[in-house]
Structures are given as structure tokens and as C-alpha cells.
User: Fold these one by one.
Assistant:
Number 1:
Amino acid sequence: DGGITQSPKYLFRKEGQNVTLSCEQNLNHDAMYWYRQDPGQGLRLIYYSQIVNDFQKGDIAEGYSVSREKKESFPLTVTSAQKNPTAFYLCASSIEQDDEQFFGPGTRLTVL
Amino acid sequence: GEDVEQSLFLSVREGDSSVINCTYTDSSSTYLYWYKQEPGAGLQLLTYIFSNMDMKQDQRLTVLLNKKDKHLSLRIADTQTGDSAIYFCAAGLSGGYQKVTFGIGTKLQVIP
């Protein structure tokens, strides 16, 4: 089945540690996105990538990094520089010229 | 930039119709979306409407767009308990990279 997978579903880390969230899609989509969801704030764009080996900062990129070495994969690293990393992280993808974004199931990150 | 606003909460009785409203600010928005998010899950695209349309119906869902007022609504007929979720309105621009702005989400509670 085609779709977007994110792993793990729940992730716990100690303060000061970097952590990488996985996002994989087999939809052959060119564009991929990372959002952060906090209660009462909706979704905010962290990074997006239109094509392999290219990515751009979104609205709240500070404290995060990404890579796009393969079309299927867009991992997000939450670094120790992110002041408030505890949140629900959503990955999405879309066909380059099409505006529908398809979302993964999300990863809930809790920093202790 | 684009701003998308929606109310936080709506409560309806099972069998009644639900109407979730949304306003956006950028008249250039080409696509307007409705996403559904169930607890602990990712976002599921319910429906979308192009800005040159006034209405779109898909089974129990009816989307109305008032482009002049930049107002979008989602009507769910015969609301069921399984419709209880958070509904996100989103506005997007076309043209290669997909820039979508999400609302804060409306939590729909269906009372049996």
C-alpha cells in the first residue's frame, strides 16, 4: 500500500540530546514537509523540500535540521538548540504540481 | 502572510448537521482544504475546493465558499459519533511549491 510512515509513534528524550524523527513515503511525491502541532496553535511549518538534495526553512526552523538524500525519505533532527521540543510532529508529502498534502500518522516527542 | 481562522469548539447532537466555519485573509489562495484529525493521529484530507467554485458536495460533506468574504464552511449532514475529531481548514497557493496555511482546528464533539 502507498502511504507515508513516521516512526516511532512515541519518543522520549532527555533534555540536551539530539533526536531524529523518521519520515518515509512511497507515493513517489517530490515535495515533503515537516510540521509541528501544539495545543491551541494548529500546524506550523518547520522545513519543506521540493526535490531531492534541496530543502527550505519554514516558519519555525530554528533548532531543527533536515536532509533529503533520497526522494522517499525526509528525516527531521530536533537539536538541543530547540527551546521547547515537546510536541506532536507531522510529516506530509505532495506531488510537485498538485496541492494536496498527505500526512503521516505523526510522532509525539516528549523531552524530559 | 496568510492567516486562517476558525472557532475552537463545536458541539452537536448525533443526527444533526454540523457546520464548521473558517475565514482566510489572502484572496490569492487557490485551494481551500478541510482536514480531519482523530486523537493521536495524522491529518486526513476530507475534501477541497478550488477558489473558482462556490460549492462542492461529497456524500455527507458540503463545502461552501464565499470568495468575496473569504469565508469557507464545512457542513456534515447526519453527524455521527465517528465524526468527533478536530477539523482543520487550510488555504493554499498553487505554483510549484505548495504553501499551505492551516487554521487552529475546530474540535467537533458529537453527543449521542
Number 2:
Amino acid sequence: DGGITQSPKYLFRKEGQNVTLSCEQNLNHDAMYWYRQDPGQGLRLIYYSQIVNDFQKGDIAEGYSVSREKKESFPLTVTSAQKNPTAFYLCASSSGQGYYRGYTFGSGTRLTVV
Amino acid sequence: EDKVVQSPLSLVVHEGDTVTLNCSYEVTNFRSLLWYKQEKKAPTFLFMLTSSGIEKKSGRLSSILDKKELFSILNITATQTGDSAVYLCAVGSMEYGNKLVFGAGTILRVKS
């Protein structure tokens, strides 16, 4: 079955550490996205990529970095510069061609700073 | 700045009640409005609306868009405990390709 896989489901980070969240899709989608979800704030866009080897900052990119070396993969690194990284992170993808159908979401990664 | 505002932020009802969730938006070059249901983790797609006045229905859920007044409503009739979730509204713009702007969500709790 096609879909998006995020790993790990839960992640604990010590202050000052960088961590990388994985996002892999086998839907052949061109576009991929990373969102952060905090209670009462909905989803806020961190980074997005419309095509391989290209990505754009979203509304809250500070303290995060991404790469898009393969169509299937869009990993997100939470760096030590991100001051409040505890949140639920959602990866999504969408087809850039033809009829626009919104996103397919992964199951998310819950990151906690300890 | 583009924005999507949902109301109410939270709602508690009893089984069998009918609820109406609201979503208003301001976005440059509107393309579509989408509703998602989020229970535990991944949001799941409910509706996509692009044209005013055309109601979309799926079982007890329905939604309609008013592009003149810039809002949409999501109705749920004969609510069940399984409808308890966060309902997210998102808007897409022609300016940004497939990027969506999300509202804060409405937390719905249905009591038995």
C-alpha cells in the first residue's frame, strides 16, 4: 500500500542535541512538507519541497533544516538552535500534477526535550 | 498575511446532537478549502471545496463553501462518540502551489 512513513513515533532529546526525523513516501508525490503542531495552534509550516534538490522555508523555519536528495525522502533535523522543540511533527506529501487533492499525512513524531 | 480562523475552538455535545463548525479565511488567490479529521495522529481527509454553494456530503457529515463571504461550515448530524476529534480547516492558494494554510482546529468531544 502506498503511504507516508514517519519514524520514530516518539523521540526524546537532550538540550543542545540535534535530532533527525525521518519521512519516507512511496506515493510518487513531487511535493513534501513538514508541519509542527502545538496544542491550540493547529499546524504550522516548517519547510516544504516542491521538487527534488529544492526546498523552501515555511513560517517557522528557524532552528530546523531539511534536505531533499531523493523524491521519496524528506528528513527534518531539529537543531540545538530551536529553543522550544517539544511538539508533534507531521510530514505530508501531495501530487504536484493534475487535479489537486490535498495532502496525505504521516502518523507523526512526538518530540520531547528532556 | 494569509490566515484561517476556526470557531469554536472546542465544543462538548451529547450523542445525537447536531454540530456546526466554522472556518473563515483570508488568502490571496483562493484555490480550495479542505477539511480534515484528526483523532490521534495523522489527519484524515474529509472534504475539498472549490466552488461556492455546492454542498459536499459523506454520511452524516456535510460541508459548504461561501467564496463571497470567505467561510465554510462543516455539519455533523446525529453525532456519535466516534466523531470526537480535532477538525482542521485548511486553505490552498494559487500563489503557493500545493501549500496549505491551516487553522487552529476545533476540538469536538461527544459524550455518551
